[in-house]
Amino acid sequence: MTIPLDVHLKLGGIIFPNMDQCDFTGPFEALARVPNSSFLTLWKDKNPVRDLAGMQLLADTTFEEAPQLDVLLVPGGHGQEALMHDETVLSFIRSQAAGARYVFSVCTGALLCGAAGLLHGKRATTHWTALDVLPLYGAIPSRERVVIDGQLISAGGVTSGIDGSLIVVSLLRGETVAQELQLYMAYDPQPPFQSGSPETAPAHILATVTERAQAITERRMSTGRVYQDRMRMPGS
Hints:
Elements lengths: L8 E6 L6 H11 L5 E7 L5 E2 L5 E2 L3 E2 L8 E4 L12 H13 L2 E5 L2 H7 L7 E2 L15 E2 L4 E4 L2 E4 L4 H14 L1 H11 L17 H10 L1 H19 L4
């Protein structure tokens, strides 16, 4: 059931150094336009952070200042790996998840949700290079572009966040509002090449991109194994 329009909704998204800004800015296009809502940009402090390519982003709200959100957006990018043992970030995700209607991860933001303990027994997706990491956090990996499992909504790599954000809007305010926003955004994907997924990309393109991602993928696998080993310890 959608939420009555007279109920004000609080939405917010985390930013962090070396994130992939499109994981945040893509969904922001739709989420920031949800009727009768406010959207907060969240980080530990209000100093500028740079994304993977150097774009600067600025938080308007610190974790300490943040109210309980209805929707928490957790983006990804290479910088996610540096936060996998950052208890300030993980505890914020956990505490918000406890009261949120939805937690919405994009790309490897799903791994941050995993490190916060939110993926156990949940179906989830992430960037295709990191799908094999998900089971280390107790998740059931899916190659779907967007996966909904209860409170958790996960979108695959980068641009999948736009699809996911429109689904979130439909859950909050209904399909009509989501379609109106899609039209406003002129979101009508017609890619010039059919290489947007491992299933459709030419073999040599897949091999090249996989090789480029090998180092970060190996680090993510290593971090996931540490988490899995910790969960196996008595008392965990």
